[in-house]
Amino acid sequence: MKEKQRIVVKIGSSTLTHAETGELDLERLEKLVRILTDWSNRGKEVVLVSSGAIAVGRKTMKLEERPKEKAVKQACAAIGQTRLMMVYQRLFAEYNKVPAQILMTKLTMVNDENRRNARATFSELLRMGVIPIVNENDTVVTDEIEFGDNDTLSAIVAALIHADLLILLSDIDGLYTDDPHKNPEATLVREVEYITEELEMMAKGAGSDVGTGGMATKIAAARIANDAGTDMVIANGENIGCLREILSGEPVGTLFYAHKNPRFHLIDYLLKPPTEKT
Ligand code: GLU
Q1: Which atom of ligand 1 is nearest to the CA of 138?
Q2: Which one of 49, 118, 254, 276 is most buried, by most CB atoms within 10 A?
């Protein structure tokens, strides 16, 4: 793990906000920014995939519930994304690190020229020592062309830029053999060599987080990442320090091993129907 050079970290809405109020958890974000900057200062190439646009927009507009209507969601995303970036910008500035914003849509990834262009932009930013912060361009996507969840998006990004490691920070410790909230016998799976159908079934039964992506979308993300040649770890973002532990090779969360498929074509995964949401 210490040797991993190009790393994508995904943080979900439930990890970057306080459960009680839905407001941003600044202490956690501060720690996240410090660790990512430190990795970048060590010469690693770091990409952050951050959710939270809709959650922050909703809070800003004082909406009681997560909006269901598309236009309201998209308006909230437009409001929240800039606020979120403002917070990241300020936190990274503390450490003299430059972040950049990349908003992606499935449509631009399906188009060969756009995809090549996106890859070149990532490469250039990473060469500059900048930390790209990625989200879906929620304000303009429609149901047919949305990634829908940032687990999938982060795996697509990892595949696009040939990352060595993808870390999904969630509100669950990793993949359990069953829903740990309901079954006290459920145990944490430490390592997954191959994603089998049986494992997929297990993930459907296991507990899911409160964001868009449940365990099923995380397994789908692992499939993309592993096929592309990227190792993936699901870990609990409650303790942001777990990022350091993961990179020191300590057993944290669930590790899905990469098996590069020589016939891997990102486009094949993009054209699949969106993963079932939980
Ligand atoms: N793109 C959404 C947002 O920023 C989050 C999607 C997800 O939770 O996976 O609000």
Answers
A1: 1
A2: 49
